Amino acid sequence: MHISGRVEYALRAMVTLARAEQPITVGKLAADSGNLSVNYLYVILDELRRGALVHIHRGPRGGVVLAGSATRLTVKDVVQAIEGGLTFGDGRLAADAEQATGRISTVWLAAHNAMLDALEQVTLADLAADRIPDAIEHLAKTRLAEGQQPSFLPQNRANRSASLRAHLRRGTAPSSP
């Protein structure tokens, strides 16, 4: 699974809305969510609105609010609104490939279901209160304790890209992970 910048920005905005006690203007939401581009935020908010996750009210007393309770809205809801259907990998295997690979697709399905379960356990209220359910915290810490740094996390992709650029400037080859 690849975590897109759009999902990251959408989650930032949704957490900011979860912390708000009243409607927030798009400009303030952009600033409070980590200085997001206002124009880009409008695109993201439109996707969240179509996903029935936010209400956008126009006018002098307008602003953006969550369409439901932060205790009921999950990370999975946000990811689905932004990315559409969630898949692990790049889709389904063709019937002939399924026969050739045997039970491999069962492994992918199990991974897909585990991902959905994890995303469904974390609510916007959890993130707004800066807490993570214990089961999710345990899953995250297990791999980190083993020294694995997931490359799909936005900060790790940025670090990897910066390292690669530095090697290219020096004319050296990066070491393998």
CATH class: Mainly Alpha
Radius of gyration over all CA atoms, rounded = 19 Å
Total beta-strand segments: 2
- Please tell me what the overall shape is: elongated
Strand fraction: under 5%
Trace the largest sheet across and list its strands.
1-2
CATH structural architecture: Orthogonal Bundle
Any low-confidence stretches, pLDDT <50, length ≥5?
A: none
Distance between the termini: 19 Å
CATH domain topology: Arc Repressor Mutant, subunit A
Largest sheet: 2 strands, antiparallel
DSSP helix count? 9
CATH superfamily: Winged helix-like DNA-binding domain superfamily/Winged helix DNA-binding domain
Query: Which class of secondary structure composition applies to the elements?
Result: mainly alpha
Mean pLDDT: 80
Task: Provide an overview of this structure.
The protein has 177 residues and is mainly α. It has a single domain (5-146), classed as Arc Repressor Mutant, subunit A. 58% of the residues lie in helices and 5% in strands. It is built from 9 helices and 2 strands; from the N terminus they run αααββαααααα. A two-stranded antiparallel sheet has the order 1-2. A hairpin with a 5-residue loop joins strand 1 and strand 2 (63-66). The model has no long low-confidence stretch (mean pLDDT 80).
